[in-house]
Automatic annotation (TrEMBL):
Domain of life: Bacteria
Source organism per UniProt: Candidatus Allofournierella merdipullorum
Cellular component terms per the entry's GO annotation: nucleosome
GO biological process: nucleosome assembly
Chain intervals with Low complexity compositional bias: 217-227
UniProt protein name: RICIN domain-containing protein
SMART domains: RICIN
Biased composition (Basic and acidic residues): 193-209, 228-248
Gene3D superfamilies (UniProt xref): 2.80.10.50
Domain Ricin B lectin span(s) in chain numbering: 12-148
GO molecular function, one term: DNA binding
Basic residues bias (residue ranges): 170-186
Taxonomic lineage: Bacteria, Bacillati, Bacillota, Clostridia, Eubacteriales
Disordered, as annotated region: 158-258
Length: 258
């Protein structure tokens, strides 16, 4: 009865599997592929560090990862000491079946139902990244585990503080730039003097009007030519004075006196 109470709390809850050194069993690099390694790491409240126990018989379970949905499995269905553990999609093979055996102190041994060997830490490694294997039961600390309901880990809310600090700094920088805006105001006065060349552009518009005067001179030239031709017509009648030669008729009168 004690064994059952320690191994199963609820079928719909998730648990951590913690080694004697305080590190938990997880899927390496939160890899979702078949064959991903199983290792130890500091607990961070991540889903790939949490497991559910799916009942497969009396006291027998499949251990499924919360993040990947894949099962704790023996590579190639191995049964010899040193067979490494990985994850694999759910199958009916006995390489995914495990039995939880109480040690009497609140911890358990997790044994392969296929070989009877214990889940064990390779080389009794205490570091993050230590791999898991199966090994014959030697009663060592590296073969004992604590199965407990997974607890949420408070994520560092400190990350929000840098955001608050950066916001005021960004506001102060624009305030420092406001005094510099007076210098551009002085530069605007200089462009006002450059506006005078705009008057020269209006002179260019008057230049086309001056072009009309040469056209008027061309019209006056033809009118002056006919005026000079009219004067000789008046001078010709004045030359009619030679008609006075009619006085020659007087000698004819003298012949009548003889």
């Amino acid at each position: 009865m004690k064994k059952a109470a320690q191994t199963v709390i609820s079928a719909d809850k998730y648990y951590t599997i913690t080694a004697a050194n305080g590190k938990v069993v997880e899927v390496a690099d939160y890899n979702t592929e078949n064959g991903a390694a199983i290792q130890l790491w500091d607990y961070a409240g991540e889903d790939w560090q949490q497991w559910s126990f799916v009942r497969a018989g009396d006291g027998v379970y499949r251990i499924r990862n919360r993040f990947t949905g894949k099962m704790l499995d023996l590579i190639a269905g191995g049964v010899v000491d040193g067979t490494w553990v990985h994850q694999w999609e759910g199958a009916n093979g006995s390489s995914q079946l495990w039995v939880l055996e109480s040690t009497g102190d609140g911890r358990v041994k997790i044994k392969s139902n296929l070989s009877g060997k214990c889940l064990d830490v390779v080389g009794m490694n205490q570091d993050n990244g230590a791999r898991l294997q199966i090994w014959q039961d030697v009663g060592g600390e590296n073969q004992t585990w604590t199965v407990a309901e997974a607890k949420a880990v408070k994520k560092a809310a400190v990350k929000a503080e840098p955001v608050k600090e950066e916001a005021p700094k960004a506001a102060k920088k624009p305030a420092a730039k406001k005094p510099a805006s007076k210098k551009p105001a002085a530069k605007k006065a200089a462009p006002a003097k450059k506006a005078e060349p705009a008057k020269a552009e209006t002179v260019k518009e008057e230049a086309p009007k001056a072009a009309k005067k040469p056209a008027a001179k061309k019209a006056a030239a033809p009118k002056a030519a006919p005026a000079k031709k009219a004067e000789p017509v008046k001078a010709e009648p004045v030359k009619a004075e030679p008609a006075k030669k009619t006085e020659a008729a007087k000698p004819t009168v003298k012949k009548a006196g003889k």
